[in-house]
Amino acid sequence: MYPTVAEVLATPSVQAGHPRVRAGEENLDRPVRWVHVSEISDVAGTLAGGELLLSTGIVATAPGADLAAYVTALAEAGVRGLIVELGRHLPALPEPMVRTARRLGFPLVELRRTVRFVEITEAVHARILNVQHERLRFTQQVNAVFTTLTVEGARVEEVLDQASALGGHPVVLEDLAHHAIAFSGTTRAGELLRDWEARSRLAAAAGETAVAGPEQWLCTPVGPRRGRWGRLVVPMSVADLDHVTAVLERAAATLAITRMLQGEGRDVALDAHGGLLRDLLTGQVTDEQAMNARLRALGLRAGRAYAVLVLGVPGDPSVDADQAVLAAAAATARGQGRAALTGITAPGRVAVVFSCAAETDEPEAVRSFLSALGPPLPEGTFAAASTPTTRLTGLSAALAEATHVANAVAAAPGRVGEREVYRSRDLGARGLLWSLRADPRLHQFAELQLAPLLRHRVLRPGDEQDLLDLLRAYLAANGNVAVLARALHLSRPAVYARLTRLTTVLGHDLTDAETRLSLHLAVLAYDQAAL
Fold first, then answer.
1. Considering only CA atoms, which of 468, 496, 500, 501 is closest in space to residue 484?
2. Which of 388, 436, 402, 445 is nearest to 281 (CA)?
3. Is the pLDDT of residue 358 over 80?
4. Were both Cys, which of 115, 394, 400, 414 would link to 389 (CB 3.0–4.6 Å)?
């Protein structure tokens, strides 16, 4: 930061003159952009503002000089203060000069000893030049960071994280309805977003970066001049305005460009919803008050119970497919008048959270939502639901449960479509195995059970019937040979012959119920590990 008037007065070169502040003590904290020596009365017209003037008092001793007008002109020109050296020709500051400076709050300082002005200018200018060099380096750093984010098409949260880190203050992105759709910073959400909409409306700002409102918020618009869609806000008083403004404006440009590249129709609020849902899923939001504040800042309201859904998008991860499901879910919620959180929590996973009148209403509310969730949805899109929760802090566990169900269902694509919505109780053994999929003991169990078939596959690669596939089909037919024969398009004698070979290679009796159970679990675990 530039040195303040007080800091200039504290330098050894100024202290040598035994300075005495005669007026404007309340404004000694103003930054000094330059130090200028002047002995002319009309100097104000040659200044740009932010200067600290040094004078030997020639103006004050000039015949007929209007000292009140002189001081007023300096103050109106943005001069930070005037330091006058007393001497034989000027033993004391004229009263009109002191009186006017006090009335205007203009810093007026007298030096009661002779000093070398060149020492003052050299010391202060060296510091100012260092500040300017640091600002240039900082500007280059800011440009490099946000250029990278722009090229990479960074998410809203990533842009705000960098803006907060570089600016040293929390940063909030809000839409034109004064809903805080995303934020970043070390301040707790409950404190930062408290009564956000009401406080934001008091901080009305023009179309450019400005300080506004009773809390002195720094605000900058986001979006092209004729298509503003939001603004970035530092919701507190900022000391180094130039520093933080540079960050905020560069972050706003990155958000605007990223949105244009991703499509103007893309709803930034939904991206923010996704960020909140991801925070919930990873357990980063655990405070009921903070969660309530974030919901209210988004324009949502708390309910008595919450339905939590995860929509599974089939096939390879696709941004377009995920966005299509997200848009359909958000439109359905709006169409039903539901205050809902809708966001992408992972590739192929779209979460939806909405309130219900009570826990008992959740099943019907979910059915109503899903029946209204129409095309265009990717074929094979399915829904997984958690147990309803009555507390906001329970949303993390509920989202984790619904995500687990969705992942387990996706691991058995042949089962998709059997139900309108899947819940934990519908998963059975598949759900248990999916929970244990990272346990090496499960992998060892599957390998031991299926080892003869896997070895046979390696030793007899040209075999007309893969024995593992045969076992999988046999288990799917629940051991019914007639059903298996129809599925394989073979005669029953041919199927019996193949099953005899399967039994021989396995070394187990397939008609034994416990053997079939062990093999079925092993096949499910093996197939999950292969995903």
1. 496
2. 402
3. yes
4. 394
